[in-house]
Amino acid sequence: MYITVLTYIDTDKSMTTPQKNNIATKLTKRHPKLIHTENIKVVSHVQRESYDWQLNTLMLDGVDVPFKYKRKKLYKNLKNSRVNITYYPDNEKVAGLDIEVMKIVRIKVA
Fold this sequence. Notes:
Strand order of the largest sheet: 1-2-3-5-4
Strand content: over 45%
Number of domains: 1
Oligomer: single chain
CATH class: Mainly Beta
Structural class: alpha+beta
Number of helices: 3
Largest sheet: 5 strands, mixed, barrel
Radius of gyration: 14 Å
Number of strands: 5
Order of helices and strands: HHHEEEEE
């Protein structure tokens, strides 16, 4: 199931190739499971509180899998923004079902 999502993102080489991003290049070389995508549009951004953390969920243009990350403080709304993200595929159990999610390691507004 990962292959379909990642193949879709890989179709546009301008989005997935780190152009001037040395940090992302170093991270992806050091950790082969990491994927870096540049200049992708955020369709939806939801923030909710969980204990001391703010859980953020992004839905990206043309991708049906949620992208998640945590922060200590609220972050500005990223809806309709373009972002550069470094992430890896993961599974999350919700109500007994395995749901595919992408865990964001690094996010920057493009």
